[in-house]
Amino acid sequence: MAFGIKRGVRFQILSESDFDRIHWGTLHILEKVGVQVDSVACRKLLKDNGCEVDESKRIAKIPSHLVEEALSKKKTSITLAARDPKYDAKLDLDHSYMTANGNGAVAVDFETGERRPSTKKDVADSSRIIDYLQNVHIHWPMVSSTDKHPSVVHLHDLDASMSNTQKHIMYETGVTLSDAKHLTEIGYIAAGGEKEFRHRPIHSCLQCTYAPLQHDAGVMDASLYFAEHGVPLVFFGMPQPGATGPVTLVGSLVVGNAEVLSALVMTQLHAPGSAVIYGMGNAPLDMRTTIRAGGSPEHAISSAIATELAHYYGMPSCVGVSATAKVPGDQAVLEYYTGCVGPLLAGADLMCGVGLLEDSSCLFYEQIVIDNEIVGSIARLIRGEWADDDTMALDIIEKVGVGKNFLAQKHTMQHLRAGEHFMPDLIDRRSFDAWSASGSKSLVDKAREKTRWILENHRVPPLDADTQKRVDAVIEKAKKPMWGGETKRD
Amino acid sequence: MADGKEAILSELENSVKNLQEEAAMEAARKALSAGVSPIDAIEKGLAKGIRQVGEKFERKEMFVVELIYAAEIMSNAIKILEPELRKSKEKRNVLAHVVLGTVAGDIHDIGKNLVRIMLEASGFEVRDIGKDAPIDGFISAAKEMGAEIVGASSLMTTTVSVQKEVVDALRSGGIEAPLMVGGAAVTEAWAKEIGAVYSSDAGSAVSVAKSLVGKGG
Ligand code: B12
Fold first, then answer.
1. What is the C-alpha separation between A67 and A268, in angstroms, rounded?
2. B101 in contact with ligand 1, CB cutoff 6 A
3. Is residue B139 pLDDT above 90, yes or no?
4. Residue closest to A373 by CA, chosen among A423, A307, A418
5. Above pLDDT 70, what percent of chain B?
6. Residue A490 pLDDT class (50, 70, 90 cuts)
7. Residue A361 pLDDT > 70, yes or no?
8. Which residues of A touch B158 (CB under 8 A)?
9. Which of A54, A322, A489, B3 has the fewest CB atoms within 10 Å of its CB?
10. Do B110 and A153 touch (CB under 8 A)?
11. Residue in B with minimal Cα distance to A218
12. Residue B199 in contact with ligand 1 by CB distance below 6 A
């Protein structure tokens, strides 16, 4: 079976003239208002290429021809390669891939239920769960190794991920130039060399732009490095409608679009042809609690229209979902389902990500398994239907005739085996009696059982000893005092 | 005159409470020409209004945008009172002086801004030193304003450790003001470990700040 979710359905929300308007409006903003670029290197790059740059305000105004050029230079066929090539994610605008959510700082201990700072072991165990599940295609280090020295937490995150999943790994922690160098170095080691990595990038980096209309210095310096060194990038705009972007979803899309396109311009000027994925996560700030509403219909629809806009530019999209729920169960399911189904119906290429609660900050192992089920159901929803001889089944209808049934038909069996009907794993469709006789288990109970089974049984081939040794050496070398002080972690 | 003054004070209060910018400006001008003390205009007028908005926000009856808007109205009205305020010998009666910033290496500032707005709405004077704020910035601002409380926000696992460096620098700089910490990567346990005080949201930040300066909580 091919990897990823093959799409056959695509809802269309915006029209062609909407795209033109949004594109024009974005160019207008970039030329007239500009973006704040905190990186000295990026400002120089823009200035050298004809942008009007105000050094005191750090604002660069970007003429539209630079945007059009960047759009024509970018890499168009991106494959996020995996340690095991059967997990290669081809971003062909025809498949959707689900990712893990990333970088929480808290985990709920699977055994004790204690809510505590996350550790490297949590990164490792959750990576194994992601490796096992079939509806999650791309891995993110889900939490941070907060038991490690702060200067190398994220290198440990990558290390624990690499040795516990064979799927592609995307991180979002290349926030300074030195982070970028170390992360890239580890990628080269894991791929077997620079050439091998460039050919088959097994890691990629997601970078956030800074709404409204700003680019952080560290993030952009790191991005130029990644672009130059063959690490695929996602630029992820995150204006929060009503807070860091206009309250209207399209207005926030324009703000985010200006950020993503200006980041694209910088990378393509610096490293023409580098791989950039179009990311956008415009979840509103809940105006009563001030928590980001990652599982809201507004986020879902924002991600859907951002996906349409990405496709208008010929770029794969990367959009998000998260939940504000505090525990696995009904609220989390409702938020994850809402947040996933909208963008996936609109053809999201990368949908990130599963398994964290409390606005992407707290890991529950069993939530990963529940979300995997949600994605399975949506995969069926977006597969698409078509009428051909086989699906119309006229010969079978004729053969069975009036008043009988199709249960014993070969056609029925063949299609069921091929996945015509979604076969849930956690949803319990049995009778009340059967359900209560086997312990009246809830969806969460069943997810916990499955999680336990995965943790006990699923093993991932480790990195070979030499690779591991070299990765460890990079981490050791990268360790440094933080902002002048030392903390006591190892 | 006394009557007029009361009426003006309640106009100030109500215009903030009901989010009426024009009315607030108008009332501030009236206060000036009627000779109402600018301190009274703020404390018995505008601040009473914003406090009610803050309380309604806490009870989820008003949106955060409305709170921010009310805060904006209040600060614009204060600008009108400013010339008188500078002449006046009375001092604004603030609950405490607070220095607030997001630590070095971290650019997340939405939460920190909300904490500032809520503290201000509750009667604290806040010096906001922004995001990605160097450790020295906390120290010098605290010295300058004579802060009774320092607040440091941090949302990333890689920047929480900077909060400890802020405490250390405060203490070695001879500043005894307690440090309040918050943000996604911060936990109660971490706060304890570094000798700081934690709060999980802007509302509890206010009660914690009040209790720190012995003004109820
Ligand atoms: C919005 C957001 C952004 C925006 C920030 C916009 C802005 N102006 O602040 C943008 C897009 C710019 C951004 C960038 C990045 N982000 Co970000 N971001 C978030 C997100 C989704 C929400 C934060 C937020 O605004 N919440 C709403 C506010 C109101 O809540 P709050 O900040 O928690 O504040 C409340 C309380 O905590 C408390 N509080 C806060 N501060 C203080 C201070 C004191 C003194 C007190 C008493 C209380 C208090 O009161 C506040 C009000 O109630 C979080 C996820 C999360 N759960 O936090 C990730 C998150 C913090 N980001 C993350 C990351 C990784 C990044 C980037 C590195 C990504 C990248 N590669 O570019 C960059 C950061 C670069 C840098 N050098 O800092 C990670 C951190 C991971 C980790 N373990 O360290 C998080 C946790 C998401 C995740 N799980 O991956 N991000």
1. 10
2. no
3. yes
4. A423
5. 98
6. very low
7. yes
8. 150-151, 153-154, 173, 175, 482
9. B3
10. no
11. B105
12. yes
Contact list in A for residue B64 (CB cut-off 8 A) is: 285, 287-288, 290
For atom 2 of ligand 1, the residue with the nearest CA is: B108
Task: State the pLDDT at residue A310.
Answer: 98
Length of chain A equals 490
pTM of the model: 0.93
Amino acid (one-letter) located at A249: L
**pLDDT reported for residue A482:** 63
Confidence class of residue B88 from pLDDT cuts 50, 70 and 90? confident
Give the H or E element holding residue A365: helix A365-381
Cα A228 to Cα A184: distance, rounded to the nearest angstrom: 11
Contact B162/A482, CB-based, under 8 Å? Answer: yes
Instruction: Give the max Cα distance, chain B.
Output: 59
Specify whether the CB–CB gap between A205 and A196 falls below 8 A: no
Q: Residue A157 burial by CB count (10 A; 0-12/13-18/19+): exposed, middle or buried?
A: buried
Average pLDDT (A188-211) is: 98
Q: Which residues of B touch A216 (CB under 8 A)?
A: 107
What is the value of ipTM here, to two decimals?
0.84
Q: Look up residue A230 and give its two tokens.
A: 């063959």
Residue B2 has pLDDT above 70, yes or no: no
- How much is the CA Rg of chain A, to the nearest whole Å? 23
- Closest residue by CA, ligand 1 atom 34: B111
Nearest in space to A23 (alpha carbons), one of A67, A53, A59, A76 = A67
**CB-based contact A216:A174 (threshold 8 Å):** no
Average pLDDT, chain A: 95
- d(CA A225, CA A222) in angstroms, rounded, equals 5
Which residues fall within 8 angstroms of residue A333, CB to CB, at 6 or more apart?
A370, A374, A443
Contact between residue A122 and residue A363 where contact means Cβ atoms under 8 Å apart: yes
| Residue A94 in tokens | 């025809």
Q: What is the pLDDT of residue A486?
A: 39
Instruction: For tokens 């050298």, name the residue.
Output: A48
Which strands form B97-102's sheet, in the order they lie side by side? B125-128, B97-102, B149-153, B179-182, B197-198
Euclidean distance between CA atoms A384 and B100, whole angstroms: 53
Determine, for residues A484 and B165 on separate chains, whether the beta-carbon distance falls below 8 Å. yes
Q: Chain B contact for A175, CB < 8 A?
A: yes
